[in-house]
Amino acid sequence: MSIIRGLGRVLFSSYFIVKGSNAALKPNDFVEEAEPVADKLVPMLQRTLPSVGGYIPDDTRTLVRATGAAQAAGGLAMATGLGRRLGASVVATTMVPHVIASIPDKTLPKAERAAGRSVLLRNVSLLGASLMASKDTAGRPGLAWRTANTKHRLESSARDQKASLAANQDKMSRKARKRIAKAEKKARKTAEKMQKKAAARS
């Protein structure tokens, strides 16, 4: 891992560690901001994903605390490099409600809408960056590439073996044909000799 990549990951994850820790330890400070989104998002998730919806808390305070804890844990995973891609995926998931919550209300004054757009842009950027971090393989081939490469090598090896077997079979066939032709030639000569001997006796 390069120093630049490690440093960048630590700097990037620091936002999520601090913000997530604050939300987990002081959820009341974020309840008012999160409540409108939670009121819309939680029922929708419970309807569309009933198997998962049962685990989503209805209480906004608990939801804020859980989201903050997940965000802080994901940030720590990215910063330490232990499960960094999983941590980035967790962070990206926690950023979705933030993006939704930061969409400015059209009824607000122009100045407030402009400020809201700045917050929205920041959250969208953080979401995009965390998605990119979730796919960062630190310069090493990813699992999908390794799987495809292994499949390609196995297929190539199988083709080579098949071609080799076909060549060997063809070589053996040529040898067999030569032996048969040689045996037939010998048989003809023997038959001719026997015919000559029979003719001489008669």
UniProtKB/TrEMBL annotation:
Q: Quote the InterPro entries the UniProt record gives.
A: DoxX
Could you list this entry's UniProt keywords, alphabetically sorted. Membrane, Transmembrane, Transmembrane helix
Q: Name one Pfam family in it.
A: DoxX
Q: How does it sit in the membrane?
A: Multi-pass membrane protein
Which residues fall in a coiled-coil region?
A: none
Q: Please classify the protein's predominant subcellular localization into one broad category.
A: membrane
User: Disordered: where is this region?
Assistant: 150-202
**Record has DNA-binding as a keyword:** no
Q: Name one GO cellular component term.
A: membrane
Quote the subcellular location field of this record.
Membrane
Under what name is this protein listed? DoxX family protein
- Tell me the organism: Cutibacterium granulosum DSM 20700
